Amino acid sequence: MSGGGPNYEPKEGSAPPEPSELVVEDRLRRIDGVVSKRTRTLAVVLDQLEDAFNMAAVLRTCEAMGVQDVHVVRNPEVPFQPNATVTQGCDKWLDIHRHETFEDCRAALKAAGFAIWVSAIREGATSLFEMSFDGKVALVFGNERHGVSPEVLAQADGVFWIPMRGFTQSLNISVAAAAAITRAVSWRLERRGPGGDLTADEARELTRKFQVLSVKQRKKLYGER
What we know:
Distance between the termini: 16 Å
Radius of gyration: 19 Å
Number of helices: 8
Number of strands: 7
Shape: globular
CATH class of the domain at 38-194: Alpha Beta
CATH topology of the domain at 38-194: Alpha/beta knot
Order of helices and strands: HEHEHEHEEEHEHHH
Helix content: 25-40%
Structural class: alpha/beta
Strand order of the largest sheet: 3-2-1-6-4-7-5
């Protein structure tokens, strides 16, 4: 993934080398390819999840499908600690934003121009297959046992559900999130093509972040995990 040797030992008082100088060409090309498909106009919100496997599975889906931003609303009874065996390190490539309350999360998303859509089986909910994913859209998924609270529903711009074609009436949270994220990405792929939607500044910033994350001794050189 990265080189080594004297490049990791900058002279005292000198600036550390640029991460691009320490990462092999194959990895640099891979980073460029990933960044070119990244989105910051589709976000995922996890509202007070309980299960570490579900937490991890959703993060893994987000990273795999190019969704950069995940918002986490704190569960006062269960810490947000995704199972590392499931994430396989994918969480380091994501920007995970933590919020004390859904109100805080909503305020941050609305300030950034997002429409907030909540996953819930409710009368009048919009089918996932009829949704438009133009503009900035945040998809909210609730607690495994209780779903989203009435307060969250009241603050949403819309409610969607995933139509079922069998006897099963609901999906596990991680499966529901995977279905919705994949649908949103495919909707955009069909209408916009395969590229992402980062601005030039966002792409440069994310590229450098990924390059730093690809350096084994990044903490020593850059003070980053």
